[in-house]
Amino acid sequence: MVNIYVKEATSEDADAVAEMIARLKMLxxxxxxxxxxxxxxxxxxxxxxxxxxxxxxxxxxxALDAATGEPVGLLVLRKxxxxxxxxxxxxxxxxxxxxxxxxRRRVGSILLEKAIDHAKDMGAGxxxxxxxxxxxxxxxxxxxxxxxDLQVEKYKPxx
Length: 159
Known about the structure:
Elements: E1 4-8, H1 14-31, H2 41-54, E2 58-65, E3 71-81, E4 89-98, H3 107-121, E5 126-129, H4 136-144
Parallel strand pairs: 4-5
Antiparallel strand pairs: 1-2, 2-3, 3-4
Helix pairs in contact: 1-2
C-alpha cells in the first residue's frame, strides 16, 4: 500500500484531472472499440474538466502520493435526482482512474471510501457507477466493494 491522501480537486488541479480523464477515455477505447475517442480529445477533455470543476452537483476527488504530491488517481462523483424513486438522490461515479503503477495498492479502494463519504454529504441515498461493459476488472472491483446491478443499459449501433 502506498501512503496517499485524497482531496477535492480545484481549478488549480485542472491539468492533472484532464490528464487522468484523457488516460481513462483512451483506456476505455483499448478495452472496447465502441468507446472510440474523438479526434480532438484534448480540447474536449479540457472543456469537460472546466465544467465538472465548476458544478455544485459534481465532486472531483484527487488521490495524491503523500511522499511526492504526485496525482495518482481520480474519481468523479455526480449527484442525480431520481425524481420518481426513493431514495430520491443518488451519486454516480462517472469517471474513475488510477495510474497503472499505483494499481493494486489500495488507491482505488481509498478513493471509493472517500466517494461514499462525499455521496452521503451530498444527500445521496445510494451510489452507483457507470463503466464500459467490457471492463471486467472494474466489474470485479465494484462487486468486491458490495455493488449490485440496479438497471441495464443496452445499445444498438446505428452506423
